[in-house]
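Reviewers of the previous submission asked for a worked example of the structure-prediction workflow described in the proposal, so we include one complete record here. The input consisted solely of the amino acid sequence. No template or homolog information was supplied to the procedure at any stage.
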Amino acid sequence: MRRRMRREPRSSFPFPTLLFFRRRRRRPPLDLRTRRRARESQAQVRCSRSCIAENCESVGIRYGKYCGVGWSGCPGEKPCDDLDACCKQHDECVEKKGLMSVRCHEKFKNCIRRVKKSGKSGFSYECPYEIAMPTMIQGMDMAILFSQLGSHNAEL
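From that input alone, the workflow returned the following structure tokens.
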């Protein structure tokens, strides 16, 4: 009577060794990676033709046509009010200089301050300037922080 013996699969080169010696791709410098991500995220921006006010007290805020991460007004659309016009200017600046541009974020914060000083009110009763502006300034402060952390020239 013959016994059948199990055979182990033959491998002249163990699998874990292959993983260890696998050639790694060189990663581009950080600033190139962040630029690529910025271009990819800009390609995912959706446009709005109507004035919207949602999530006014969170970083997920949508205000007007131009305010909100991942949103912008459709080409040729006029802003809903002065605050929305600040968002439009910020979108245009970021489109030219990139999402990591601290200068764009600072200009946006200054624009918000000018609108606040004007004493005007916005288009939305559900999302008044008194709520929307601090939310947007906080979001810009976070964007500035992340931009500085991603920059090689940042002073900490």
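Residues 15-24 have pLDDT under 50 and may be disordered. We consider this example representative of the routine output the project will generate in years two and three.
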